[in-house]
Amino acid sequence: MSSVAPSELLLIVDDEEQILALVERVLSDQGYECLTASNAAAARQVLEETPVALVLSDVTMPGESGMDFTREVLATYPDTAVVMVTGLDDRRYADAAIELGAYGYVLKPFRPNELIVNVRNALRRRALELESRDHRQDLEQTVLERTRALRDTIAQRESSDAELRRLREETIRRLSTAAEFRNQETGEHIVRMSLYCAHLARLAGLGVERSEEIRIASPMHDVGKLGIPDQILLKPGRLTAGERRVMEGHTEMGHRILAGSGVELLDLAAEMALTHHERIDGTGYPRGLSDDEIPLEGRIVAIADVFDALTSDRVYRPAYTPEEAQAMMTAGRGAQFDADLLDLFFGAFDDVVAIMSSAGTGREEQSLALALWHAAGRARS
Questions:
Q1: Residue 337, SS3?
Q2: Between β-strands 9-13 and 33-37, what pairing exists: parallel, antiparallel or unpaired?
Q3: From CA 158, how far away is CA 156, in angstroms rounded?
Q4: Taking residues 63-69, what's their average pLDDT?
Q5: What is the pTM (predicted TM-score) of this model?
Q6: Which of 11, 119, 184, 287 has its CA 20 to 30 A from that of 80?
């Protein structure tokens, strides 16, 4: 008999007594502790009283749909996995179950090994997701602790402006690195998009000091993704409407992490985190801002971030060329993107390509200095 962790308590829900007994016997022989219920109402009572690692539920039960019951379990008990065990050999039901978040779909009649493999895989996946969630919470706590440490350091080191700036930039760089690990982005992405932001800020007529602040703060724009579950953040395919709503929450999560410190760079980063997915036509998120309601810094980050995303490799597609990205973004001129800023950005196309080519080679500062020199010349003219 295989030994399993005491926490791996299973709940079997089926209105057929023979199936209920068979599933219980097969899994008990493998060392799992099993509870049973003949309908959703009885199962609901068990779940209210006892923590359960995995629910094995029939699809068709008297009085209530197994699909509706599964949806309720996954929403109410996020630490509980669900495997569907059903006689409905229909791809539509299987797809619907997986779309709901079920961890498996076993057809009756089933072979014992088939059931055991599905249960083990579901429990293994559940364990990994719980471990990932705990790791994410630890990482979020680290971010908050480092942010508090930054505030304390700034309060203690006001006498040294140069040292203060170095400490602020280094802290933000490290926080950005934490978000980068979570989001599976590369260090080059953060470097490139921050340089694009600084260059566009100078083209827009902002001074060198403000452009430098934007460069330092902009890598924090996606720090809110620390709070997005792995199965959504790292999903390779199209997100469901519900998953997309969760993903869009990263803007407000980032703002909550960064705002309210009284540190100018963090407050600037908080504003970028909140507004970089707003659109000029008012159809963006999270607040549906439009035109000049969107802070200039948010409009700048939106352009830099999308351009770098399009010109970077993704698991589901290769990178677009700069020219292809330009054409795609121009289609959103005045709708997704600020028209004047987009014209400035692509009006300095050679400088943009130079920044893109230099990131990761150690020549970033040289390329940015050259680009800013050109931008300053354009601003004077």
A1: strand
A2: parallel
A3: 6
A4: 82
A5: 0.56
A6: 184
